[in-house]
Write a structure and sequence with these properties.
globular, mainly alpha, DUF4194 domain-containing protein
Length: 235
């Protein structure tokens, strides 16, 4: 077990994220002793495992008490510890809302992108799905047309801001489509953001631009986020 712990810790620190269906990641998610030892190893260097059962990846991030010692001297820390400007953070939140919120609704209700909307009597018994079956992409051109003017200009969004989010691992860009990156659903705090977006001003802004969000009264999304990784989760 010692070698596997050392290997997983080194891979997490080196790669920043790993797919949750990775053999050693899966062991960390279902083996309590292995997870505790991993947490101790990461905690010894000021890190923690970022895990969300509905995300397709796990990642490493700074422990809460390390934010100020590591980033406190940096002027940019007031906006983001990743060096994102306020406009870039706004774009990230918009992308998160348009990709993750609809995806979570599909995951919670055990429906996929090609679902015809008919009721499935056994839907709640299905494992939580990840990846392309539940996570839809966004048209880059449409996103820029809808929000580019609000975020510093269409050229800036296309040539600089989206590229930065892609380099950081939040999104992937393929043939004019923005897709979920490995960090989008695991690095942002779902419990905090979902409620603020659905019940906040951003919901009106997105609706005015023609983008639909899950209805607030359909279900409380946060209540469906389990504290532990379900053993039947698909990789």
């Amino acid at each position: 077990m010692e070698h596997e712990l050392q290997t997983l810790t080194a891979r997490l620190i080196n790669h920043r994220w790993l797919p949750r269906n990775d053999r050693l990641v899966r062991r960390a998610l279902v083996d309590e002793t292995f997870r505790q030892d991993l947490d101790r190893r990461l905690g010894a260097v000021g890190l923690r495992l970022l895990d969300n059962p509905y995300a397709a990846h796990v990642a490493v991030g700074l422990a809460a008490d390390m934010h100020e010692p590591v980033f406190g001297a940096s002027r940019e820390y007031a906006a983001s510890n990743l060096g994102l400007t306020r406009d870039e953070i706004a774009l990230l939140i918009i992308v998160w809302a348009l990709i993750v919120l609809p995806k979570r609704e599909r995951q919670v209700t055990r429906r996929e992108l090609d679902d015809d909307g008919q009721a499935d009597l056994f839907g709640t018994d299905k494992p939580v799905a990840h990846g392309d079956s539940v996570s839809a992409g966004l048209s880059e051109a449409s996103l820029i047309a809808d929000f580019g003017g609000r975020l510093g200009g269409k050229t800036k969004v296309r040539n600089f801001m989206l590229g930065k989010l892609a380099r950081l691992g939040f999104i992937e860009r393929r043939n004019g489509v923005i897709l979920e990156g490995p960090l989008l659903d695991v690095a942002l705090d779902y419990r905090m953001l979902a409620d603020r977006i659905i019940h906040g001003t951003l919901a009106d802004v997105l609706t005015e631009a023609g983008h639909s969000l899950p209805h607030a009264n359909a279900f409380d999304l946060a209540d469906h986020l389990p504290d532990e990784d379900p053993e039947d989760t698909e990789g």
